[in-house]
Specification:
With 486 residues, the protein is an all-alpha fold. The protein is built from 24 helices and no strands.
Length: 486
């Protein structure tokens, strides 16, 4: 159980680095959806379209190097050589992108139909974020989760503080002070949002800059080629994931009539945020398990620990799924402040289950990462992206954002199942399928009943949650005792 204790310790700090910053960032949703801040759901939709492109370009600029870094850092004897080669690779590619993007920003603006004033800010943010990929990966690989957490939390705290300042305080301050009047611009809210992001990214790079002073700048071409062979399927998978995660907003913008597209995107994106609780849990867990997978791959019988990890994930994820569904209508006024967005609440259970499937997929993906068969990750992710694109293109015209939510669920569920079946062939892990299936069936069934058949009857929902908690506690009693035993 010591390996599991190490995992949960790291997951706790990575959880702080992910959950607390995003919970701080979560306050941006009620800020953006409050009356008088952004003019309408359509303007919030415009912000989310830009952030959708952010996700895609972040993946392109990382090109799988983060995962390759973890693999070779634990595989090679000369870890300094791995670190310096990865850092130089990303430095060169990031500045090359930056120069080209600035030169062709007008053309980029025309192709993706986003105002060039936003494109300029986005280019700078992408550069700054790319330059901290390897430094953050190095902190994770060397097991420094506390420093990782502090810097991540500080980044989002600065971002949040500047959003509050620009969107709530600056206008009033400009009326009383010439200093603030000089920086205030009417109808500049969307630009202020990205300016806050830019400042936070710049300060994060400053805090991580010492990393570049500690490494020996040695570039090993042969090593880099091997890393890229490992990384390119990860890049393909990352592009596919970005399509699954955010491309639906872009398709909604392109396929719906202009007079309703941004409004639907705004409502969809706001209600999508209620699935954040599942996303936070799955992300924190993934940040903890990815280094764990590699560092324990040569230990005695690692498959046994991998199986237990998935059991714990499914048990905890099932509780989160049912709890969020039961209390969705209770928490929505605190998160989504304007009723103009509530029409899209229908998607909440669908997106929660979808992200649950995605989290399970990340747990199952150990087999192709450990066996260096990352091309399978690319194949599976590309198929998921094809499913996402196909369902969205065929059904957005008739069903709008509902088609996007269902497409996300089907894509992630198929990816989860494919990873499981391929894993059984190439790297068998003794998963307790009976227990995992029980958790999934009961939690999903109760969630659907609670939200779609007993919505508004909170006591029925709470009763369902209590019953499930009792089942989980009874089933995991022995494992919990072992985990807590000193």
């Amino acid at each position: 159980m010591s390996a599991l204790k190490s995992l949960f310790k790291q997951t706790f700090f990575y959880g702080l680095a992910t959950v607390l910053p995003r919970m701080l960032g979560f306050f941006l949703v009620p800020l953006y959806t409050s009356d008088g801040v952004l003019s309408s759901p359509a303007e919030y939709g415009r912000v989310n379209i830009i952030f959708s492109y952010f996700v895609l370009f972040n993946v392109l600029l990382a090109y799988g190097m983060e995962t390759a870094f973890f693999r070779f850092f634990n595989k090679e004897e000369d870890r300094d050589r791995v670190t310096s080669t990865s850092a130089i690779s990303l430095l060169v590619s990031s500045f090359a992108f930056f120069i080209l993007a600035l030169l062709f920003q007008e053309q980029i603006s025309h192709v993706i139909e986003i105002d060039v004033k936003y494109i300029n800010l986005v280019i700078w943010i992408l550069l700054l974020d790319a330059l901290v990929i390897v430094p953050f990966a190095w902190l994770r690989a060397t097991q420094k989760p506390i420093k990782y957490a502090i810097i991540k939390i500080l980044n989002v705290a600065i971002n949040l503080g500047l959003n509050l300042f620009f969107l709530l305080a600056l206008k009033d301050l400009a009326a009383t002070s010439s200093v603030f009047e000089s920086i205030y611009r009417p109808n500049f809210e969307v630009s202020y949002i990205f300016t806050a992001n830019l400042v936070a990214s710049a300060l994060t790079l400053v805090l991580m800059a010492s990393f570049y002073t500690k490494i020996n700048f040695r570039f090993d071409t042969a090593l880099w080629k091997r890393m890229m062979r490992y990384a390119w399927p990860v890049l393909i998978a990352g592009i596919a994931f970005s399509i699954n995660e955010t491309f639906d907003r872009i398709l909604l913008d392109k396929l719906l009539p202009p007079d309703v597209a941004e409004t639907q995107i705004g409502m969809y994106s706001a209600c999508y945020k209620l699935a954040l609780f599942m996303t936070l849990f799955a992300t924190a867990y993934r940040l903890g398990i990815e280094p764990f997978f590699f560092s324990h791959s040569k230990s005695e019988n690692p498959q046994k620990n991998y199986a237990r990890i998935l059991e714990f994930f499914v048990a905890i994820g099932s509780v989160i799924l049912l709890a969020v569904v039961v209390f969705a209508d209770v928490i929505k006024p605190f998160i989504i402040r304007s009723e103009a967005y509530w029409e899209a609440m229908w998607i909440v259970p669908i997106i929660l289950i979808a992200n649950f499937c995605l989290g399970i997929y990340h747990n199952l993906s150990v087999w192709y990462k450990i066996t260096d068969r990352t091309k399978f990750g690319a194949y599976i992710s590309v198929l998921g992206a094809i499913i996402t694109l196909t369902i969205n293109i065929l059904f957005i015209g008739s069903y709008g954002y509902k088609a996007s939510a269902i497409a996300t669920l089907i894509a992630y569920a198929v990816m989860m199942l494919l990873s499981f079946f391929f894993g059984r062939k190439y790297y068998p892990i003794p998963y307790n399928l009976k227990k995992i299936s029980m958790y999934l069936f009961i939690s999903i069934t109760l969630s659907v009943l609670s939200f779609y058949y007993f919505r508004g009857q909170i006591f029925i929902g709470i009763s369902m949650l209590i019953v499930f908690l009792g089942i989980a506690a009874f089933t995991e009693k022995r494992q919990i005792q072992l985990l807590l035993k000193k």
